[in-house]
Amino acid sequence: MSVWQAVLLGLIQGLTEFLPVSSSGHLALAQALIPGFRQPGVVFDAMLHVGTAAAVLWAERRLLIRWLTTTSGWRLIWFLALGTVATGVFGLPLRHVAEAGFGHPLEVGMFLVVTGIIVWSTRFFSGSGNTEGTMTWKQAAGVGLAQGLAVFPGLSRSGTTIAAGLGIGLDRTWAARFSFLLSVPAIAGATLIEVLGARSQIVAMGSPFWAACIVGAVTAGLTGYVALGLVIRTVSSRSFHRFAWYCLPVGLLVIALSLGGLL
After folding, report:
1. 178: Cβ–Cβ under 8 A, 6 or more apart, which residues?
2. Stretch 161-190: mean pLDDT, rounded?
3. What pLDDT, on the 0 to 100 scale, is given for residue 59?
4. φ and ψ of 22, to 5 deg
5. Number of compact structural domains in the chain
6. Average pLDDT over residues 193-220
7. Cα gap 158→143, rounded to integer Å
């Protein structure tokens, strides 16, 4: 893998992780088009997600510091822990099935269509519900369960969790921010699992692979930070559902190309 390929994939990850268009789906399609691309498991993809998780931590650093220093803040940290456990309920059993989808563009296209339908549905939610101070543990668990289902490439994590949050009564802006914060522990856990599971292959790849991982992660983090603000603005302004007009045609195009043997 060249440095420029790592930069390209980092840009794709950073721009699509928080937009409801499925970063994993876009990575899978991009990697299918790069001649000779290979990685141990999905370790490189996991490292790109570490970059965007770092963007979340930096963007929400003041909120997290306040949580760590107040009693009400610790309540929300426990909600993040609960949501993470709920994610594992679905995410861990489905992990190997989901990884297999990276080599099947047809599945990616189908899940992009599903993402489009989910994102379109958000236009019917009022988004005037619970905020940071009034969120319940049931809502935290519900968003976590939705995140666990969004492990398939093409099924957007942010689109699924934000839609779930709005559907179960969260305020629009808080639904987006909680979705982003909930991604951090999930990404950390998934990355650890991938690295430990492929450690012998990683050693065989050598230092060039790790250099590509670092370059890609930094690129993803920088572009992801910009994308974060864009998504929060679109959710708050009730224009989030318009991303469906991207997911639906792209998903249908990928399905057509796959059935035609061109992908």
Report:
1. 83, 135, 140, 143, 165, 170
2. 92
3. 93
4. 70, 100
5. 1
6. 82
7. 10
Residue 145 has pLDDT above 80, yes or no: yes
**Mean pLDDT, residues 204-208 taken together:** 76
Domain containing residue 111: 3-259
Beta-carbon contacts of 65 under 8 Å, excluding residues fewer than 6 positions away, are none
pTM reported for the whole predicted model: 0.89
CA distance 167 to 165: 5
155-172 pLDDT per residue, tens: 999 999 999 999 999 999
Q: What is the 3-state secondary structure (H, E, C) of the chain?
A: CCHHHHHHHHHHHHHHCCCCCCHHHHHHHHHHHCCCCCCCCCHHHHHHHHHHHHHHHHHCHHHHHHHHCCHHHHHHHHHHHHHHHHHHHHHHHHHHHHHHHHHCHHHHHHHHHHHHHHHHHHHHCCCCCECCCCCCHHHHHHHHHHHHHCCCCCCCHHHHHHHHHHHCCECHHHHHHHHHHHHHHHHHHHHHHHHHHCHHHHHHHCHHHHHHHHHHHHHHHHHHHHHHHHHHHHHHCCCHHHHHHHHHHHHHHHHHHHHCCCC
Task: Single out the residue of 11, 19, 21 nearest to residue 48, CA to CA.
Answer: 11
> Could you tell me the two tokens for 23?
């970063």
- Of the candidates 168, 15, 133, the one whose C-alpha atom is nearest the C-alpha of residue 63 is 133
State residue 244's pLDDT score: 95
Residues in the chain: 263
Residue 41: predicted pLDDT: 66
Average pLDDT over the chain, rounded to an integer? 89
Rg of the chain on CA atoms, in Å? 18
